Amino acid sequence: MLYNNLTVNEKGHLAIGGLDAVELAAEYGTPLYVLDEDVIRANCRTYVDAMHEYFGPESAPLFASKALCFKGIYPVVQSEGMCVDVVSPGEIFTAVAAGFPASKMFFHGTNKTDADIEYGVSQGIGYFVVDNLNELEVLNKVASEQEVVQKVLLRLTCGLDPHTLEAINTGKVDSQFGVPIDTGQADEFVRTALSCEYIEVAGFHSHVGSQIFESDSFNRQVEILTEYAAKMKYAYGLTVRILNIGGGFGVRYTEKDPQIDIPARIKEVSEHLKAACEKYGISFEAIYMEPGRSIIADAGTTLYTTGGCKEVKGYRNYVTVDGGMTDNPRYALYKSEYTVLNASKAGEPADYECTIAGRCCESGDRVAEYVSIAKPERGDIIAVLTTGAYNYAMASNYNRIPKPAMIMIKDGKSRLVVKRETYEDLMKNEL
Ligand SMILES: *Cc1c(COP(=O)(O)O)cnc(C)c1O
Q1: What is the 3-state secondary structure (H, E, C) of the chain?
Q2: What residues flank ligand 1, with Cβ below 6 Å?
Q3: pTM of this structure
Q4: Ligand 1 centroid, distance to 288 Cα (angstroms)
């Protein structure tokens, strides 16, 4: 099995965290998102412990809400000592409703509207991650009206290419995110921020991309940011207290993907950071990272009920499921690969090559292509692994399909954390 929380039980069914996937599907219905809370907590702890050890006690990971935002996730990450990043008022609203302290939130976004900025400041957001000069101006005005000094990180781009998909590559100079160092525009950004009376510049932020396996871009990023922090110290007297180096560690979707040793990577980054700090004669109070995918992806499994097989002679076999691009658009967006199992026949040889197709009227509605599973019959439960990140968060109601329910598993027990949408829910805003 791809992960060690997955086993085959005595009935030959897939078990997730010790619970029979076929029984979970019968109890809660399908499609069903299953999250293993023990895995989420273990992932959080890996980051918290390694960051404390290698970056110092003030350092912490932030959970990137965009990977999976719903009320129930916040108490879990909070109790593990994580801060969170949020990218919209909707995410802030959800986190606040869940009781997460706004002072531990970092507010991202390339285009925060005036209303977003007013909302964020009024909620007492800990740090705005300011994307550009326009935002800086509005934020200063709003903070002055609300009579607060708003702490910020300035989002910079370091001109790095982390060799990931174009759609999730954010660190290059030619990017809509942040302000580039290379073009000299970051200097004006820093100067302007320092001149804003109601803004306190606490440090810099940079995020190179997502689903990254190589370590070079993270190592280079801390060197570039440290050099730049020293330059800004000598040019404008800025003390950069905090460096937030973003998220992006890759996860294992299939056997082909490597398994990243997160503590080893963090150690490696910390060594590059330390060397750069010595070289440029500065130090930082705290380092933050923003993992989303590597906290939540491998904790998630989606269960579907299959409609059966369709064998197109001379071409391929299709297995249809009762979900697809509406609950997981990642194949349609990025041709993402997944590991698929027949959860009802998990003990049988996986020797039936097929393409898993969804239920939408769209030929791009596929979950995985050319995967091998035990040949399913109508009614078998199909499990797609590693769906914790960017699945529920990206789900839609295309073809008027209600969003699935989500359950969490902990200590061998399951509980409902998101109800299945009803048809009435689909019409609730329609007059
Ligand atoms: C998407 C994103 C993250 C999280 O990335 P993962 O690949 O899920 O770890 C963190 N920070 C920013 C600014 C992002 O845009």
Answers
A1: CCCCCEEECCCCCEEECCEEHHHHHHHHCCCEEEEEHHHHHHHHHHHHHHHHHHHCCCCEEEEEHHHCCCCCHHHHHHHCCCEEEECCHHHHHHHHHCCCCHHHEEECCCCCCHHHHHHHHHHCCCEEEECCHHHHHHHHHHHHHCCCCEEEEEEEECCCCCCCCHHHECCCCCCCCCEECCCCHHHHHHHHHHHCCCEEEEEEECCCECCECCCHHHHHHHHHHHHHHHHHHHHHCCCCCEEECCCCECCCCCCCCCCCCHHHHHHHHHHHHHHHHHHHCCCCCEEEECCCHHHHHHHEEEEEEEEEEEECCCCCEEEEECCCCCCCCHHHHHCCCCCEEEHHHCCCCCCEEEEEECCCCCCCCEEEEEEEECCCCCCCEEEEECCCCCCHHHCCCHHHCCCCEEEEEECCEEEEEECCCCHHHHCCCCC
A2: 64, 66-67, 85, 108, 207, 210, 246-248, 290-294, 389
A3: 0.96
A4: 12
